[in-house]
Specification:
The complex is a heterotrimer of chains A (about 850), B (about 60) and C (about 70). With about 60 residues, chain B is an all-beta fold. Chain B is built from no helices and three strands. Chain C is built from one helix and five strands, in the order βββββα. The chains are: A alpha/beta (about 850), B mainly beta (about 60), C mainly beta (about 70).
């Protein structure tokens, strides 16, 4: 139940205060084992790298030498089911963890050598384990994804691909992936039914094709087609049985604690119920909301943190859980009766379990997401294929849990449509105005249309899209969901670095001091803005193509060596076709992230004005100034800073953004075909890379110095450059065609005084109406009092619950490095009604 | 030599369990750190030596 | 003998642990100097090898607390 408590000292005291709905949730939040990251390192020094997953993985592979790769993957899960440590924490209701200690993380040696050895050699691993860990990493070196992909690149290509300059490091070196687990299948069928289906497929294959019936013809082609499928179906069965064992070991543990350890009576009874849930929830269809929540949590933990590593928490939560919530709370004589309050408590606890997820992804993305532990974004809201409101009581309860718990994870994406009801929108607003930065708002119609038009997703399915990570929509049901990042994203190039080296003939003066791109000419001799543009586009094209090859080869090898039999058995397409999710190429959903965006139109507008129109400076002057990092060129820098800037509804610079978007569409969708036949769409966004890439990008023509933050979001104005109010920003943003993207990330900071006033909701609704009418893809909000943030920098211990939006995710402000904190503070506060 | 099966923390796996194996059990320990209490379960064979296990505590038999 | 990897200013590179970003030039920049017009922390990085010889700006990791090192990182 809602508790209203008057707070005394913060500027949030106009708002009703929220807290966890039960004393138990308060205690769990107080002792939460946060796994936030800062500067690529885990903030809590108790976070360590464990050995168990690596040991079991390696043992399973060695014991099954000679077996098909997918069988080895399945045997790993089977052995894990039998041997991996189970952990139940005091008072928790949802159980499950993927390492042998609740403060630890596990490593993925099969996914990449560089990332694995980085962690082993760091403070993350205790000395006593390092020798064995090194041995395991070396054993995996030729066998892992990186080892399989490297032979297809020249040495100089690997040198570029292992730095973070013009492109994201090659995906096979990153240890960063994503996926969308088909939870719906698990709830509706249960693993035992899935096992039976697979067994029937195998039996049928033998009966139809692998037979010795002398009365029927022998068709060797059909025989050949079945062998690989049979291997996959067998692997699915082995993996699923292993997972059932794992969940039932949790059931046993709960019973042992209840029967043999000193726990309060209420907890004893609860542990027995938890045992019943764990006994059934993976094996059988969900009986109610508790089964569904526990099954979802187990499947997420296993699919995203154990079978392999994958970022995200993709699903349309209110939609897929609604039937089970409805059963538990409203059915007469339900199998699993629960009150609304008990469901609320489960949703609250989910937030803590997600916050406790420690994940040893590669350093690139640990640095890209400071203040959080990963991208955990759930999708809610929207309308169906007949435009009927899909928000339900569960949508509201999810938002209530969010308000109560005040954690940055999981974040939410809200599928906005005018037909979504006002009560839910009010709750969305309450989250935003408290500064959470989420739900981020997505234009439901644009996203739905995109899936139908570009990716041939049927209408009903397209209406039920869910975010795959932070920005991109995808399928979310039982069929054809995204199984790996290289099926969707896994691809990006860095526009700012491409521009920097276009202005130095492909040579990186500021960071690597090497030739990292093609020679595109001496920029001091460029005679027109078009020559600069052509050189810039050539650098982008080179980076884009090289990275595309890396991405496609990664996908090719994932399909052969990094299968996911557990997640695959949950996908109807995989089971029907006998294909692992990594190799099923029938459902491409690709995009290409475009990093740092406002920097490009701002740079070109400045160069056009000052060099080619006013002729106040020459190209030679600019090249020297950039090489000197503007030092000694202060007056010139001021002129370039004063040139027109994006986000002010100024056609002089807005035309460059339009051209930038069109060019990205050409470079990606028109010029590329991925290995699965998919044609990617550009997706301008940055997560925290506008801050974490600052050290790698040299001085730029709009006046930025090497080391300063870069352009925010995907289409957001550079911090502090949007000076004409929120409507001007929206008008600028609406000038590009959002339908030619997979998404366009827009960060806006709104006045905390207005948002937290009585008129705040109405004013925000008016803003949202303007946003919708301008056909804009996305928007997410910062709402904060800058004095709070500056105080938090000085006394972080007093501001533990202060959450801010980064870009694509939210984070605890005190867990951010200073460069990211300052960049958030610097965002222009827009006055609503301006 | 003391074995795991003689320890208070050892719980034989029931025959009805999917992972039942004769002589196999769960080693269940309660741990506590500054963040709270938790219980761990690891699979062990009852006849494993527990001579070097710092958690070993003999089961009382009546 | 100390190497760059031992230095408080060494930040491991994202994708290759044998290299790092030297952040010795990280600093606060006042609003009038920053492109954004607001006070900002900046990190001008240069690439170094983990086993490169140290320079005269070397500072042992032990001289900064862990939190200080993380806070001034990226």
């Amino acid at each position: 139940m809602e508790k209203i408590v008057q707070l005394s000292s913060t500027n949030l005291d106009q708002l009703e205060q929220r807290e966890p709905s039960t004393e138990r949730m308060k205690r769990l939040k107080d002792r939460c084992r946060w796994k936030s990251i800062m500067g690529g390192e885990y903030i809590d020094p108790d976070t360590k790298a464990g050995m168990e997953r690596m040991q079991i993985l390696t043992k399973a592979y060695k014991e099954n030498e000679g077996q098909p790769e997918v069988i080895k993957r399945a045997k790993f899960l089977e052995l894990s089911g039998r041997e991996h440590t189970c952990i139940i924490q005091d008072e928790e209701i949802l159980v499950g963890y993927h390492a042998e200690n609740p403060d630890w993380v596990c490593l993925y040696p099969e996914m990449g050598y560089n990332a694995t050895i980085d962690m082993i050699e760091s403070d993350l691993m205790d000395e006593e384990y390092k020798d064995e860990a090194r041995e395991i990493a070396e054993w995996w070196k030729p066998r892992n994804l990186q080892g399989k992909c490297e032979p297809y690149f020249k040495k100089e290509e690997l040198e570029v691909g292992y730095t973070y300059t013009t492109m994201e490091p090659f995906p096979f070196a990153l240890v960063y992936m994503s996926m969308n687990v088909p939870y719906k299948t698990l709830f509706e069928d249960g693993l035992e039914n899935r096992i039976q289906i697979c067994q029937e497929k195998i039996d049928n294959a033998f009966a139809e094709h692998l037979h010795t019936d002398v009365n029927r013809p022998y068709d060797g082609v059909k025989v050949g087609e079945q062998l690989h499928k049979i291997d996959n179906w067998r692997a699915f069965i082995i993996a699923a049985k292993g997972i059932i064992i794992w969940s039932r070991r949790y059931a046993r543990l709960a019973r042992i604690i209840a029967d043999h350890f000193d726990v309060p009576d209420w907890r004893r009874e609860e542990l027995k119920k938890m045992a019943d849930v764990c006994e059934n929830c993976m094996a059988k269809p969900a009986r109610g909301f508790w089964d569904a929540m526990q099954a979802k949590y187990f499947a997420w933990m296993l699919g995203h943190s154990y079978e392999r590593y994958a970022s995200g928490y993709a699903h349309l939560e209110d939609n897929i859980l609604w039937p089970y919530y409805n059963k538990s709370v409203y059915y007469k004589d339900p199998e699993q009766p629960l009150t609304k309050e008990q469901c609320l408590e489960l949703l609250e606890e989910e937030r803590l379990k997600v916050s406790e997820r420690g994940i040893a992804k590669g350093r690139t993305y640990r640095q890209a997401m400071p203040g959080a532990n990963d991208l955990h974004i759930i999708t809610i809201g929207g309308v169906d294929e007949e435009d009927r409101d899909m928000c339900n009581e569960l949508t509201d309860l999810i938002l209530e849990a969010t308000l109560n718990m005040c954690t940055p994870e999981p974040s939410f994406g809200f599928r906005w449509h005018p037909n979504c009801n006002l009560k839910t929108k009010r709750l969305v607003f309450e989250c935003i105005r408290r500064g959470f930065g989420f739900p981020a708002i997505f234009n439901h119609n644009i996203k739905k249309w995109q899936l139908e038009y570009y990716f041939n997703v049927p209408r009903e399915e397209a209406a039920r899209w869910a975010l795959q990570l932070c920005m991109s929509p995808g399928r979310s049901g039982r069929y054809g969901t995204q199984k790996t990042r290289t099926q969707g994203g896994g691809h990006h190039y860095v526009t700012t670095k491409c521009l920097e080296i276009a202005l130095s003939d492909g040579f990186d003066h500021s960071y690597t001091r090497k030739q990292i791109g093609p020679k595109t000419g001496d920029p001091a001799k460029f005679k027109s803005i078009e020559e600069i543009w052509d050189a810039y586009v050539t650098q982008c094209r080179y980076a884009c193509r090289l990275h595309t090859r890396a991405r496609d080869i990664t996908r090719y090898m994932e399909a052969r060596y990094l299968q996911s039999p557990f997640v695959s058995i949950l996908d109807d397409a995989c089971v029907e076709k006998g294909l692992d999710g990594m190799e099923d190429m029938d459902y491409p959903n690709p995009w290409c992230n475009i990093m740092h965006n406002s920097d490009i139109p701002d740079s070109f507008a400045a160069m056009e004005k000052l060099i080619f129109e006013e002729k106040k400076y020459s190209m030679e002057d600019l090249v020297k100034a950039l090489r000197a990092n503007w030092s000694g060129y202060e007056e010139m820098r001021r002129d370039f800073l004063a040139a027109p800037k994006w986000g002010n509804d100024d056609e002089y610079v807005d035309k460059w953004m339009r051209r930038f978007f069109e060019t990205n569409y050409q470079l990606t969708h028109e010029e590329l075909t991925f290995i699965d036949g998919g044609k990617p769409l550009p997706l301008p966004q940055t997560v925290s890379l506008y801050a974490s890439m600052a050290p790698f990008i040299g001085a730029l023509p709009y006046g930025r110095r090497h080391g300063e933050v870069l352009g925010d979001g995907g289409i957001s104005p550079y911090v502090g450059m949007d000076k004409k109010g929120p409507t001007a920003v929206l008008k600028s943003v609406s000038k590009v065609d959002h339908r030619k993207t997979k998404g366009v990330q827009l960060n806006q900071r709104l006045s905390h005084q207005i948002m937290r006033s009585e008129k705040g909701f109405q004013m925000w609704l008016s803003y949202m109406e303007a946003w919708w009418n301008l056909n804009i893809d996305h928007v997410q909000f910062n709402v904060f009092n800058v004095e709070d943030l500056k105080a938090a920098q000085k006394e972080p211990e007093k501001y533990e619950d202060l959450i801010v939006r980064i870009a694509g995710y939210s984070a605890r402000f005190i867990s951010l490095p200073k460069i990211a904190q300052d960049a958030v503070i610097a965002r222009t506060e827009q006055e609503l009604g301006a | 030599m003391v074995t795991c099966a003689e320890c208070k923390s050892y719980f034989p796996i029931p025959e009805s369990a999917d992972d039942y194996k004769k002589g196999k059990g769960d080693c269940v320990r309660e741990e506590k750190d500054q963040k709270g209490k938790y219980w761990l379960s690891k699979s062990v064979m009852g006849d494993m030596s527990a001579d070097n296990c710092s958690y070993f505590s003999k089961k009382l038999t009546i | 003998m100390t190497v760059c990897g031992d230095c408080a200013f060494f930040m491991v590179e994202p994708a290759d642990p044998m290299y790092g970003v030297c952040s010795v030039e990280a600093k606060e920049v006042k609003g009038e100097e920053a492109a954004s017009g607001q006070d900002l922390f900046t990190i001008k990085g240069s690439r170094v090898g983990r086993r490169d010889d140290t320079c005269d700006k070397f500072k042992s990791k032990k001289e900064l607390s862990r939190e200080e090192r993380l806070r001034r990182s990226y």
